[in-house]
Specification:
Elements: E1 9-10, H1 24-40, H2 42-56, H3 63-73, H4 79-99, H5 107-151, E2 158-159, E3 162-169, E4 180-187, E5 190-198, H6 203-222, H7 226-243, E6 253-260, E7 266-272, E8 278-281, E9 284-287, E10 310-313, E11 319-323, H8 325-328, H9 352-366, E12 374-381, H10 384-389
Antiparallel strand pairs: 1-9, 2-3, 3-12, 4-5, 5-6, 6-7, 7-10, 8-9, 8-11, 11-12
Helix pairs in contact: 1-9, 2-3, 2-4, 3-4, 3-5, 4-5, 6-7
Keywords: Hydrolase, Membrane, Transmembrane, Transmembrane helix
Domain PPM-type phosphatase: 162-381
Protein name: PP2C family protein-serine/threonine phosphatase
Length: 397
């Protein structure tokens, strides 16, 4: 590769087998089950502790402890599970009272049983409230993700000489529409791509996403070179910030603009403060770090008009991977950030979907839930024999 000699490379790395794209949801569900498995064991644990305490210290009144079982179960279990927790607590309290050879229906025991039944009813009511709120939040998340996906263009599977794939995953913590974006356009100047992340969420992010995608699709077709496309996007973002009174002046968009030459032999990259793309081939990963750092879009007035562009070779079978910071900012339980390089440093098929699936599978093994939206694009230069077949045609948007 005749690009950068100082770029870090990694060698082969043993990893688990790659699941298909349909396995992504399974990895997320597995992570959430791991996260809440211990908490779902609390209600039976409380009952067991109450029995142990009563056997070890009979004078101790365990009814208050048993009464918490159904309340703890309310936010985690279903309605039958919550009621069952309360019923088990009542049965346990009755058996413990009977074991003491005391009056089962004594005044103290009646108060305890009444407390258990009352809290079980309250827990059932709380369970229904929690269930409605969870359903509303789930619906909001689904709507936000559907709107986000509707804004993003469909990534064509093939264009002459190249195969492509895209992935988008909404964050689980919030129901706001995110600011992740990507676009792909085949032009006379080559295949042009953009991937970016708007600072913030909500309606302002939506406006910036629509603005950037619109100007990219127009400029990608009309502008003769990549710097002109970047400058057009910068002008549009600056204009939007000037016209929108409620848009904070510090709003910006990190983005990477890529132009793959018509003969597919090389690519040009203009990085505006975005995570560096990765070039994957034969178990090696090369980070395409910019030689000169540039400010994000929207902050161009603080820098000069020059748009730095780096050029890299694109060998047959190599895959270019672009992603937003929701991927590299994902943390595990100990706060360690996710590194996308290790899962890609092993032999992978020259298939963009397989490369993205390997990275995302490792991501969901690393973290239980994403705290920020994540988007990714992958472009693979087809081997020469596949290029010569001419089985794919350019896709128009």
């Amino acid at each position: 590769m005749a690009a950068r000699e100082d770029m870090p490379k990694t060698g082969p790395h043993d990893a688990t087998d790659r699941p298909g794209a349909l396995g992504m949801k399974r990895y997320q569900r597995t992570g959430r089950l791991r996260r809440f498995a211990w908490s779902r064991a609390l209600p039976p644990a409380v009952v067991i502790v109450a029995v142990v305490v009563d056997l070890a210290w009979p004078p101790f009144n365990t009814f208050p402890l048993l009464a918490t079982a159904s309340v703890i179960a309310a936010p985690m279990f279903s309605l039958p599970g919550t009621i069952a927790s309360g019923a088990v607590a009542c049965l346990t309290g009755w058996l413990l009272s009977f074991r003491e050879n005391a009056e089962v229906l004594s005044r103290a025991n009646l108060i305890g049983f009444t407390t258990l039944v009352t809290l079980t009813v309250v827990a059932a009511f709380l369970n229904r409230m929690f269930a409605r709120e969870r359903e509303q939040l789930r619906t909001s998340r689904q709507v936000a993700e559907a709107v986000q996906r509707a804004m993003l263009p469909t990534v064509p599977e093939r264009v002459p000489g190249l195969a492509m794939a895209g992935r988008y995953q909404a964050a689980q913590e919030e129901a706001l529409i995110g600011g992740d974006l990507y676009g792909v356009h085949e032009t006379p100047h080559g295949l042009r791509l953009v991937i970016g992340d708007v600072r913030g969420k909500g309606t302002q992010a939506v406006t910036l996403v629509n603005t950037l995608l619109g100007v990219f699709h127009a400029a990608a077709l009309q502008m003769p070179d990549l710097p002109s496309v970047v400058r057009a996007a910068e002008i549009q973002v600056q204009d939007l910030k000037a016209r929108e009174e409620d848009t904070p002046s510090e709003d910006f968009v990190t983005a990477v603009f890529v132009e793959i030459l018509p003969d597919r032999s090389a690519l040009r990259v203009a990085n505006r403060g975005h995570p560096a793309p990765l070039l994957v081939q034969g178990g090696q990963v090369t980070a395409l770090e910019p030689k000169e750092p540039s400010l994000p879009l929207g902050l161009g007035d603080l820098a000069g008009p020059v748009v730095p562009v780096d050029r890299y070779d694109l060998p047959p079978g190599a895959t270019l991977v672009l992603f937003t910071d929701g991927i590299i900012e994902a943390r595990d339980r100990t706060g360690v950030f996710f590194d996308p390089v290790p899962p890609l440093t092993r032999p992978l098929p020259p298939n963009p979907g397989a490369v993205l699936d390997a990275m995302l599978a490792a991501l969901f093994r690393h973290t239980d839930e994403l705290e920020d939206d994540a988007a990714a694009l992958a472009v693979t230069r087809l081997p020469d024999e596949e290029e010569s077949e001419g089985t794919s045609a350019a896709v128009r948007f």
